[in-house]
Design brief:
With about 260 residues, the protein is an alpha+beta fold. Helices cover about 20% and strands about 30% of the residues. It has 6 helices and 17 strands. The strands form 4 sheets. Strands 7, 8, 9, 10, 13, 14, 15, 16 and 17 form a 9-stranded mixed β-sheet that branches. A 4-stranded antiparallel β-sheet has the order 3-2-5-6. It has a two-stranded antiparallel ribbon with strand order 1-4. The longest helix has 9 residues. The protein starts with about 20 loop residues before the first strand and ends with a helix.
Length: about 260
């Protein structure tokens, strides 16, 4: 199946507000596998399609897949049986936005928005940051994962400038004073014998938090990769690839 940190502000995308952008009814029907777009238009003009119990014949009509009830010949049509959450291994150079950009690639191009038009990113990753980025059509799940009171752990691999000393690592473990207040204690370890490759787990989601923490101890981040979000790991998912979460993974996230 193919296809922020960190500069990230851990909130759902404002340009979508966690809601699906209304789509043309014939496009909705085609995405749901009812028929081709042209054949779906024929179904509409024949009076066989209803939206919220009302026959809709106008080809310019739009629906919100998360709100409107669409039926063909009385049979309800839906894009999925329930909310969908997917994991993307975000490559470098891709912007976390669902809005089209004229000159830069965006994450919306890498996830199945045609199949699940309500997908929005749960949090953000900087363009130069790689790794796990979740998307969901479930606004409640997204808000819960990002809410500060839930302290969902996020683990990163950071390459920093210079060698991080033990005393500097201890400062990170105890919590760093930033301009917006002290951070919670982080879990810090070195990757192998290299003192400039650091694994760090934080339990907050403040803007640029990991980058600012390392900057505060004198070791700016050169490269950053999110390898874990809560209970989730990338596994063998390659950069640019996505997959749906399993029921067990979703249950673990909700716990």
């Amino acid at each position: 199946m193919t296809s922020r940190d960190i500069s990230y502000d851990e909130r759902p995308e404002d340009d979508r507000g966690g809601r699906v952008v209304p789509v043309r009814l014939q496009k909705f029907l085609a995405r749901a596998g009812v028929a081709s777009r042209r054949a779906s238009e024929n179904l509409m003009t024949a009076g066989r399609v209803t939206v919220n119990g009302e026959v809709v014949c106008e080809l310019g009509s739009k629906v919100d897949p998360l709100v409107d009830v669409v039926a063909v010949d009385g049979a309800i049509v839906s894009l999925a049986d329930g909310p969908v959450t997917v994991m993307l291994n975000k490559p470098a150079g891709v912007i976390t936005t669902m809005k089209a950009q004229s000159d830069r690639p965006i994450v919306a191009d890498l996830v199945p928005t045609d199949q699940y038009p309500g997908l929005y990113p749960i949090g953000r990753l900087d363009a130069d940051t790689t790794g796990i980025l979740l998307f969901s059509t479930d606004g409640e799940l997204g808000n819960a994962l990002l809410h500060p009171s839930h302290h969902v752990p996020k683990t990163y691999l950071a390459q920093v400038s210079g060698d991080l000393g033990d005393s500097e690592a201890d400062r990170l473990r105890q919590g760093i004073e930033l301009d917006d207040g002290p951070t919670q204690p982080a879990e810090v370890s070195f990757v192998g014998k290299r003192r400039n490759h650091v694994r760090i787990t934080i339990h907050e989601g403040r803007y640029h938090q990991v980058k600012r923490m390392f900057e505060a101890v004198g070791h700016p981040v050169i490269a950053l990769h999110r390898e874990r979000f809560g209970c989730l790991e990338l596994g063998d998912l390659k950069p640019g690839e996505w997959r749906e979460l399993t029921d067990d993974e979703l249950a673990s996230l909700r716990r």
